[in-house]
Amino acid sequence: MTTEDRKPSSLAPSALEEVEQDNTAPPPLFTNGTTYDLSDPLMWTWKKKHLALIAMCYMAFMTNFLAGYGVPMIIPQAKEWKLSPADSTRSLSGNTSAQGFGSLIAVPFAQRFGILPVMFWSTFITFFMTIASALCPDDWIGFIAIRVIQGLFATAAQVLGMTVIQDIFFFEEHARKLGIWGWSILIGPYFGPFLASFIMTTQKWRTAFWIVSPFSGIGMVFIIFLMDETTFDRINSSNNPPRPETYWKYKVQTLSGIYGYRAKGKPTLLQGCLEIWTVFSKPQFYTLFFYHGATYMWSVGINGSLILFLVPPPPKGYGFKSIDIGLIYFAPMVGVVLGELWGHFFNDFIQARSIRKNKGLFEPESRLWALYFSTVFTAIGLGLLGIGLEDLWTWGIIALLWGTYIWSLMISTVAISAYALDCFPDNSAAASALLNFTRVLHGFLVPFFQNKWANAVGANWSFGTQAIACVVAFGIIPIVQKCGKRWREKTTQGPDLTIVTRAKGQP
């Protein structure tokens, strides 16, 4: 690819020092907090940006919160419907698998009609499916169907969060905001069982769903009043539809999708679907598809099946009661919080170091150095967790190892999401949907065989094999770092280089 054909991307953080401009490089696009259109979401106030981020992260949290909320209900539902505990987990697997397909469906509609209407309608349906879970008659097939529909629509916030962050925040803010968004995704599946475990001590499982229904309603209120449409055409401003005169007319049009439908230059639904395939077919994505799935999938399995290790009385298990199960979920939640705090500074350090080393040019592959660190603790956490469950180590050590594994996942998830955003800045929704699909595709299968596998060979060997799989999958990362730049130069999906400093003489 010639110099003239390259697509540079630049958003210049004021904290970085000025460098001499390289006249052989393509000219950077300097924003530095200034655009020519005040309606550009990049020009929103700090308050408006972070209120939108709160609304998005709340619903991203609710997606996995609602999925994990059903974990403590496995045993009572199995007794009510005369099922085995393993069969009772089908509603969890169905909800989780539907999230993956829902993420792929959400992207074309968001690209055609806008972010806000997809968020609103998906939250609206999620709210009523949560109520339907409480109203479900004595029919476990019907309950599974309701949970599948709930997962199908609830996943929109997880998919569109990366695009919203790109739309309203500058480059130097991306990794930090992706950390907050990743935190909301990863803490949800553990806070759900934590809360449900306490509710289930005094209430039946249907009542537990009634209690949690207003949580989804709050999300709908957040979407209506805190969010705004973030889609904006910066290249051709004439494609942006005129804003209605009144606040409520504008709100109705953006929430319904009318405003986005009137926008020009939008891809069709078919083009949106083809864009997903285009992103997936690029080596800088499908290589990470393998690594991310192989490391993340076991967290889904642990969340859905760990209860089957904890509930049986000694010597087969720990004899945990409902409150005990709730308390142990503190471990992964603490892991997520510490992972966010660590990543907040660690990813900034890697980013700034890469920029200084390359004299103002940012190499996206530098973000993957975080995976060298995280993979070590992923393997240690998984391997020792299996040994601990097999030998019935004290529950405190089990909690520590589980938290360590989730802490490492938080670090790797943010690094991979940031790398995907750097490689596909114009296709962030498609990249995010595929990352979510990666997690779900690999993860929803694990509860089907996790318990049977551990019973057949022992928890030490099953979890140990999982740890080895993570290490083997890591072998792809040095290849991505070595070949990533060449791969990016061969595609028009993203920039060959990102210029993040102001040259001397630039305003």
From TrEMBL:
SUPFAM superfamilies: MFS general substrate transporter (SSF103473). InterPro entries: MFS, MFS_trans_sf. It is found in: Membrane. One of its GO terms (cellular component) is plasma membrane. Keywords: Membrane, Transmembrane, Transmembrane helix. Its main location: membrane. GO terms for molecular function: transmembrane transporter activity. Pfam families: MFS_1. It comes from the Eukaryota. It is a multi-pass membrane protein. Residues 1-30 are annotated as: Disordered. The chain crosses the membrane at residues 51-75, 113-134, 140-160, 180-201, 207-227, 288-311, 323-347, 368-389, 395-421, 461-480. PANTHER family: MAJOR FACILITATOR SUPERFAMILY, MAJOR FACILITATOR SUPERFAMILY (MFS) PROFILE DOMAIN-CONTAINING PROTEIN. This is MFS transporter.
